[in-house]
């Protein structure tokens, strides 16, 4: 059921209160009345109103003072000031103090209807705005974070809870797990989403280049600095800065970064003007920052400043159930970009992929699928299209025995059928290895 | 037809035939008995010289005082310009869910707006205004349906846009 718009009428004249009360009640609004400003404030202490219609001239506290007091209470109500003493000065004053509109008594019935209609339109716009802000709570732009595993669901839940805050976030996880996608999802679901997310790959830059990249530089700051340049912190104003591979930055840069995070201000290289920027910082690393702190390789104060929230992105081998979905997603993605009809993957190929450990995580899977589409026959991705080396464990085997047979054969081949070295690698004695060779009928 | 009775108290020296036609329309719309009573009342006490209009709040009280105990609802019909302190004019007024209402034909004629007289249109407007105010006495609020007689009207043109009857939703509430 639609919520009724509530109106508080504040006027010292009974007839005005009664008439407006009746008028608005007949129009379906929820109405309350107060005979003076003091009573109005006491009513407002216990509840809120969408619209407050107050007389300007009242004994005791007048309408303008009431307006200021209501604003001091942080009430979001729309305030309309009524008076029988029209003057431009008081109208301007009321509007300057935050009144929505100003009307002269008596009103034309149609003007009153229009006034309230405009006010309710404003209220519905405010509600709509709130609804849109709330929509941030239901995650958006996370379509690249694919999966139905518990591990990825946990990551999505963490994104959902951390996104609307302003807290710094460290995203940890092995290389290729999709840490930047998580950072983008956090930004896209935050209140900063209409402002830029600026990424800096700290590991790819030398100390001096990183300094110039982050803080910007003034013309002539160093050889080749021909023009003034904005830094990434400046570009991320009102938005988010994503510092990838944070563990690679030097001790000097760690100090600089800590200072910027604490003051949210900095100077361009070669500059002498303090520049402020309101940014949120999200970092990512594939290293164990905590142990780096213990070893003194990463500043403890910076670590705690950055690690307000931590999201760990699991490696692909810990979310094997997501591989078919990811595979399908990448097939669709690359078939579209290569203008090819959508192809499928043969079950044996998929089985092999499912058994693979993916040390390069999703990035490796993505590259694998892209390559398979390029080298494949354009109809189906088969086992031969996949770039598995000798060391890859073939999980297309049907049973444990078959797996054991394949594995022993792989190691035997690796050591040129040297029984002693193979037994040592397999951590079994030579007799056991001979028995297995005999059992599986293995031949060099 | 139910046992409720609506009384039309005529203060405006209206033509008998007009009152009869209104009476029939009201009886039809509310499905009850309607009686018409003509009243002679000096309205000087209700006149506000500063506004050159008649105070609707005071007239509403007067009608309430004059209403018959046998009448479920009473509406006073006037031919004077009505106001309430906060509004420049009103076509009518009612006690929401109460026993009394008032309505005036004064601002409903075309001549007031520089147009050619149209007696039938005036009757239609007055009928709608009376049914609308009586609707309020039956606790009906303004209706969002533009054709419903309970739709809010601040100009005569608004009155012309709506029908003289209730929408199904409002009818169910009477």
Structural notes for this entry:
The complex is a heterodimer of chains A (444) and B (174). With 444 residues, chain A is of the alpha/beta class. Chain A has four domains: 6-134, 3-Layer(aba) Sandwich (Rossmann fold); 150-314, P-loop containing nucleotide triphosphate hydrolases (Rossmann fold, 3-Layer(aba) Sandwich), CATH 3.40.50.300; 318-385, Helicase, Ruva Protein, domain 3; 400-440, Orthogonal Bundle (Arc Repressor Mutant, subunit A), CATH 1.10.10. Helices cover 46% and strands 14% of the residues of chain A. Chain A contains 18 helices and 16 strands. Chain A has helices at residues 14-26, 37-46, 63-72, 88-96, 109-135, 150-162, 179-188, 207-215, 232-235, 251-263, 289-294, 300-306, 323-337, 347-355, 361-375, 400-414, 419-426, 430-440; strands at 6-10, 30-34, 51-55, 78-83, 101-104, 169-172, 197-201, 216-217, 229-230, 240-244, 265-267, 274-276, 280-285, 309-312, 344-345, 380-381. Chain A has a five-stranded parallel sheet, with helices on both faces. A five-stranded parallel sheet of chain A has the order 7-10-13-6-14. In chain A, strands 8-9 form a two-stranded antiparallel ribbon. In chain A, helix 2 runs parallel beside helix 3 (63-72) and helix 17 (419-426) crosses helix 18 (430-440). Chain A is elongated. The N and C termini of chain A lie far apart (79 Å). Residues 390-396 of chain A have low confidence and may be disordered. Chain B has 174 residues and is an alpha/beta fold. Chain B has a single domain (2-173), classed as Collagenase (Catalytic Domain). Chain B has helices at 16-30, 56-66, 119-137, 156-161, 168-173, and strands at residues 2-10, 32-38, 47-48, 53-55, 73-78, 82-84, 87-90, 92-94, 100-104. In chain B, the strands form two sheets. In chain B, strands 2-1-5-9-8 form a five-stranded mixed sheet, sandwiched between helices. In chain B, helix 1 (16-30) crosses helix 3. The longest helix of chain B is centred in the C-terminal third of the chain and has 19 residues, at 119-137. The two termini of chain B are 13 Å apart. The mean pLDDT of chain B is 91. The interface between A and B is medium-sized, with 20 and 19 residues.
């Amino acid at each position: 059921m639609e919520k009724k718009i509530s109106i508080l009428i504040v006027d010292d004249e009974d007839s005005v209160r009664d008439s407006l009360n009746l008028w608005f009640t007949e129009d379906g609004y929820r109405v309350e009345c107060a005979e003076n400003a003091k009573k109005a404030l006491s009513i407002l202490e216990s509840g809120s109103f969408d619209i407050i219609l107050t007389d300007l001239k009242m004994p005791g506290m007048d309408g303008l003072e009431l307006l200021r007091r209501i604003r001091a209470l942080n009430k979001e109500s729309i305030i309309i000031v009524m008076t029988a003493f029209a003057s431009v000065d008081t109208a301007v004053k009321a509007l300057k103090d935050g009144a929505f509109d100003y009307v002269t008594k008596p009103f034309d019935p149609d003007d009153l209807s229009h006034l309230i209609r405009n006010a309710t339109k404003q209220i519905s716009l405010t509600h709509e705005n709130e609804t849109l802000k709330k929509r941030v709570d239901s995650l958006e732009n996370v379509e690249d974070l694919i999966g139905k595993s518990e591990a990825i669901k946990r990551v999505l839940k963490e994104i959902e809870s951390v996104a609307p805050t302003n807290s710094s976030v460290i995203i940890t996880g092995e290389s290729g797990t999709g840490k930047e996608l998580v950072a983008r999802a956090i930004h896209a679901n935050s209140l900063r989403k209409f402002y830029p997310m600026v990424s800096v790959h700290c590991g790819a830059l030398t100390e001096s280049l990183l300094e110039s990249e982050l803080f910007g530089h003034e013309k002539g700051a160093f050889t080749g600095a021909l023009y003034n340049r904005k830094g990434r912190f400046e570009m991320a104003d009102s938005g988010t800065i994503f510092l990838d591979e944070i563990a690679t930055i030097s001790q000097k840069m760690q100090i600089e970064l800590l200072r910027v995070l604490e003051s949210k201000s900095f100077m361009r290289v070669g500059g002498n003007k303090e520049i402020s920027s309101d940014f949120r910082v999200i970092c990512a690393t594939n290293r164990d920052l905590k142990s780096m702190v213990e070893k003194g390789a990463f500043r403890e104060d910076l670590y705690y400043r950055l690690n307000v929230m931590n999201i760990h992105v699991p490696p692909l081998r810990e979310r094997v159930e997501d591989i078919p979905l990811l595979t399908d997603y990448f097939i669709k993605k690359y078939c579209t970009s290569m203008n090819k009809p959508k192809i499928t993957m043969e079950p044996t190929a998929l089985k092999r992929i499912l058994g693979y450990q993916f040390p390069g995580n999703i990035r490796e899977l993505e590259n694998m699928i892209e390559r398979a589409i390029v080298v494949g026959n354009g109809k189906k991705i088969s086992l031969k299209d996949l770039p598995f080396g000798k060391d890859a464990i073939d999980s297309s085997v049907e049973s444990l025995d078959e797996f054991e047979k394949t594995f022993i054969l792989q190691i035997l081949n690796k050591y040129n059928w040297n029984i002693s070295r193979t037994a040592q690698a397999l951590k079994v004695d030579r007799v056991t290895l001979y028995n297995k060779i005999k059992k599986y009928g293995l031949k060099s | 037809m139910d046992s409720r009775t609506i009384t039309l108290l005529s203060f405006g020296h209206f033509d008998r035939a007009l009152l009869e036609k209104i009476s029939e329309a009201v009886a039809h719309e509310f499905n009850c008995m309607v009686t018409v009573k003509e009243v002679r009342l000096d309205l000087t006490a209700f006149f506000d010289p500063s506004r050159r209009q008649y105070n609707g709040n005071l007239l509403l009280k007067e009608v309430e005082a004059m209403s018959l105990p046998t009448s479920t609802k009473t509406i006073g019909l006037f031919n004077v310009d009505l106001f309430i302190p906060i509004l420049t004019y009103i076509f009518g007024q009612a006690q929401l869910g109460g026993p009394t209402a008032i309505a005036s034909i004064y601002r409903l004629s075309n001549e007031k707006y520089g147009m050619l007289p149209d007696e039938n249109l005036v009757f239609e407007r007055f009928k709608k205004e009376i049914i609308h105010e009586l609707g309020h006495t039956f606790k009906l609020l303004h209706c969002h349906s533009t054709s419903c007689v309970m739709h809010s009207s601040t100009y005569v043109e608004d009155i012309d846009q709506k029908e003289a009857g209730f929408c199904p939703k409002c009818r169910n509430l009477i």
